[in-house]
Amino acid sequence: MRRLLRLGLVAAVVVVGYFGFTFVQVVKAARSNEAQPAGAIVVLGAAQYNGEPSPVLQARLDHAVDLYERDLAPVMAVTGGRRPGDSVTEASASAGYLIGEGVPESSLRLETDGENSWQSLAATARFLANEGIEEVILVSSPYHALRTERIAEEVGLHGHASPAPGSPEGRVTELVNMARETVAVGVGRIIGFRRLVNLDDRVGQVREGVGRG
After folding, report:
1. 203: pLDDT strictly greater than 70
2. Deepest in the core among 108, 153, 165, 188, taking most CB within 10 A?
3. Residue closest to 152 by CA, chosen among 167, 140, 168
4. What would the pLDDT profile of 50-83 be if each residue is shown by its tens digit?
């Protein structure tokens, strides 16, 4: 019994230490800006309202415009599909906003089917590969920086995270998001981020079934 208790204690210390270290990495990535010359800027999608970017999405797009105007990349890819009830995709809303900010339509690439970050980045990696582009700047909210880099690596992109500095999440929301990302990154590094998406989908289906029951 004592041996089992010791093993349990050691396992608990290892798990806490692992996720504690991961939390530090998530926070560090959120506070860093790795922007450098690349083949493309990739903007991760977020909510939009009838073609108007939400404050979170607008913060990402404004940051991407700044990077583009600094000539860090000649191409900008925007991602995100259509959520239930939406009339347009997140990518289309982003493209419309960027064109209004002076980004030429010829510089834009749209990924319009992704339902999550892994799907969006995997699809983006495929069409950027056709243009010989692997090196990208990844633009998302600060808490999301580390996971986007890890997913990009998994799908064949060499990504440098450049979090949107004007992201409007409050401190409490930011802390909750950091904690959630810590779990996602910690688990994703063990089982793979594609499997993490599949696991999350299955959990969602179970919850939906329980709710209906």
Report:
1. no
2. 188
3. 140
4. 999 999 999 999 999 999 999 999 999 999 998 8
Residue-range domains of the chain with CATH: 29-168 (3.40.50.620)
Tokens 């990302």 belong to which residue?
A: 181
pLDDT in tens, 76-111: 999 999 888 888 999 999 999 999 999 999 999 999
State how far the Cα of 78 lies from the Cα of 73, in Å rounded to an integer: 14
pTM: 0.88
136 DSSP β-pair partners: 40, 159
What is the rounded CA–CA span in Å between residue 179 and residue 73? 32
**Residue at 31: amino acid letter:** R
Beta-strand runs (E) in 44-117: 48-49, 52-53, 75-79, 108-111
CA 101 – CA 157 distance, rounded (Å)? 27
- E-strand spans in 113-168? 135-139, 158-161
Paired tokens of 145: 């920086």
β-pair partners for 160: 137
CB atoms within 10 A of CB 168: 12
